[in-house]
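Possible regression after last week's pipeline update?

I re-ran a chain I had predicted before the update to compare outputs. Posting the input and the new output here so someone can diff against the archived version. Not blocking, just want to make sure nothing changed silently.
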Amino acid sequence: MNEKDEDRLLHEICRNSSMGREAIYQVLQDVYDEEFAYELHVEAGKMKEFEDKANARLKGNGKEEAGPKPMVGKMLKSAVKMRTAFSDNTSHVADMMQKGNRRGADELKKAIHKYKGAGVYATELAREMIDFEEENQCRLESYKNER
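New output (post-update):
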């Protein structure tokens, strides 16, 4: 195991889950469908679990926990507000969130490939998060078509 690769992959998991949660909290302000809002809350909770696991591993490795980058959060908030300003219907928001999950899964796949020396724990956690984000894409599809 390469310790630097391990730390970098864990940081990527933290960054990815933090951005996902932030996006969810931003769109929730414009979600009026209670069932859809519940789904998003569940997704945010699971994203927090991934971040907590990655941070616990970093801490166990004697490293500093990864926190969200304030500038990225501000840019994300602005982008979400612009996109929901035109349409805040459930279908549009579900499409936005679906694309975000796709992007997140793709970024984690690239990180696994880039940080091949990461240990089993970090790699499996990243794969578990990819699976979760891909499942979210499927769940969100029903909100795009029904409403």
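Follow-up from reviewer: compared with the archived run. The radius of gyration is 16 Å. Marking as no regression found.
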